[in-house]
Amino acid sequence: MATTLKPVDAVIVGFGWTGAIMAQQLADAGLEVLALERGPWRDTSTDFATGFAQDELRYMWRHHLFQNVSDDTLTVRNNTSQTALPMRHLGSFLLGTGVGSGGVHWNGQIWRFLPSDFLTKSHNEQRYGKQAVTDYDLTVQDWGVTYEELEPFYNQFDVLCGTSGKAGNLNGTIQPGGNPFEGARSAEYPTPPMPQTYGPTLFGKAATELGRHPFPHPTGNLSQPYVNNFGAQLGACTYCGFCEKFGCGNYSKASPQTTLLPYVMAKPNFTLRTETEVLKVELSPDRKHATGVTYVNSAGEEFFQPASIVILSSYILQNVRLLLLSGIGTPYDPQTGQGVVGKNYAYQTMSSVNVFFDDKLINPFIGAGALATVVDDFNGDNFDHSGLGFIGGAYIAGMITGGRPIEMIYTPQGTPAWGMAWKHAAAKNYLRSFSLSVHGSCMSHRGNYLDLDPTYRDIHGRPMLRMTFDFTDNEHKMSDYLTDRAAEIAKAMNPREIKLNRRVGSWSVVPYQTTHNTGGAIMGDSPASSVVNKYLQSWDVSNVFSMGAGAFPQNAGYNPTGTVAALAYYSAQAIVQQYLKNPGPLVQA
Amino acid sequence: MDKPVPGRRHFLISTAVAAGAGVAGSLGAKVHDGELGAPPRTYKGGVPWTEGLADQPPGISGTDFKFFTPAERVFIEAAVSRLIPNDEVGPGAVEANVPFFLDRQLAGPFGRGDHYYLGGPWPKGAPEQGYQSRFSPAQMYRAAIAAIDKYAHANFNGADFAKLSDDDRDKLLKGMESGSIQLEDGVDAKTFFAMLLQNTKEGYFSDPIYGGNKDMAAWKMIGFPGAHYDYREWVTRHGEPVPFPPVGFKGRPGWNGES
Q1: DSSP character at residue B36
Q2: Are A243 and A369 in contact (CB under 8 A)?
Q3: How far is residue A457's CA from residue A449's CA, in Å, rounded to a whole number?
Q4: How large is the ipTM?
Q5: Which of A107, A409, B138, B187 is spaced 20 to 30 Å from A495 by Cα?
Q6: For residue B56, which residues of chain A lie inside 8 Å, CB to CB?
């Protein structure tokens, strides 16, 4: 029997980036805020101490900072004719857990989506005709929010993180050195771009020769020390090459720990409980109002936590599952196309090109999570898609996140995976090769969705989430086209040889791709086609707000964190300025 | 590390002791690697701090094998010496102490499958659905080694895998890699091969604190400086050799004047 606790104004489910942002915003508005995090407390000095942090085995391969799937995983399949089976070991994506969650082990790649990305349906229909977005059974939608509406909140996140970069479009004026394709920014980046190492520099030169528009990747790996408006101090990145999948011991990668927690944790009206997992959002008898959440802690004790507002800020797969388990909104049915919860699950379409030099020492171990020179000429609708047979695109990056030797030894085409020939190729090429990354969009498709698994259950006895997903022809065509564009740049670098790693075949849960899962709790302008409104407020239960990339109606060719954070700020402002004065739906259905 | 202290450090010590007992796949209470299973905590009024709670790498101590039987150890040495053979370019997996690394990994949380979901049912599934065995990694190794020897007996004149010629061992390993060889007793050859190869590369290239990568010779071979953490001086020195010899969490050979 659950013990009922003292009510709070707002309960936050999951304490990563969006949980920390919401906690700060709502606590500053005077609310009594409680955050529930199913993983442990984590902070820079004790958990990611420099000297221990550069541990590829422990963090990348033994999953020290990631969700332990022995307790709770999801089931996966490519299509509805298969039986979904559990992801028994992390692979394709690396789910975070613990305070800071994915905000601890991310790369620090901070992007804004393009203005046209928020209008994927209407913009592409207008430019290429209706069939462009209905071919291949795509179910893309507009977001219900525009780039212009989100711009101040993108900026707020940059100011929080101290993002390093160079603006390419400042208030509508194109700036040299930045990304000329980006939406208009209202401010320059808080800190200058990171200096580039040899590989990204060679990439930039080659791209320029081909008439592309290279620029330094905007990054939360800071180029210089920075103090944000909460007094949190970040240091300059030391290029140790252990960002992605690792915590930063140097206080130089923006994370909840390095930007917000010292401030939020000190607020008297904020409380954090760790090792507590929310099982369900509890609803009033008419199911139009959430009364709070039921959670169980690691001692097995169950509690009912009453709350006036429920913020779902766990990872998208958990958020969607909580909506389904709590009976909030109608589950999506891929046969009829009816229902919305679980609809438009999408991912990221990745490929790469390796370059191998004889005469150039690349020194790949000098790296950082977002150390790259990038071209955005073939992302979103930055290029004419007429006759190409797909929508969407990718950025192409000459990127060196690090030279971690278990994961990141590149060997030429035809090299076996083991034996003397492999060893010799590894020894010969490690210092003289690197990888161009093609980071592509993924459109939503009628057959790709999330629901509850009929067979497999977690340690609490709840059905696991079931993921039905495969890449469609739109994604394969996009990816092939973009991989060819990356190969042109690779060749222009005059290497000994290159190797193309195309996106081939069905999606597999095994090799790591990205942790950019999106959709399932999508935003939009109508309850018939979306789970939440433009303020991330549930259409069905107006005191429930669902954060994160679950709100993306389809995925753009960028990393999601910047947009996830901007949406959280936008939602928080609506809660503080509108909802608190007049609780109820912020958009009339 | 001999006096238990509260919190996660205590927790890691418990894990290490449990692993040290050499019991694979049979721990009663589930132990997690610093993720879940700690008591619930409430934090209010500031960032918590307790002296000495730094989350050190678990590492290993001693030199004795804990998981592999003598016969299994012979098998493993015979297998990994083909996956990464020894020559003047760099160490082989055996020379880099990979068998010892594998032994300690299999005796600990990895071998127990602490980060694997092993609940049923267990249909085989499509390759895209990944690992679908009921076996923990330790159980998989134990079953696979026996099954491979059984296969070698039946197909290579009654010899153990370790007694085969280099060419025959390579032939058998390639057959497992491609899935053209079927093993008995619930072992999927391709799945086991992928695990063995991955774990061998882990032991070859991970920090020596885990027992492999002896003398950081694998790092030296490729030119990786290890846990060196500040390269700012070298960022814009394009194409120059970085002269740092590798360093691990416990320092490096040579600091005391010995090799």
Answers
A1: S
A2: yes
A3: 19
A4: 0.97
A5: A107
A6: 52
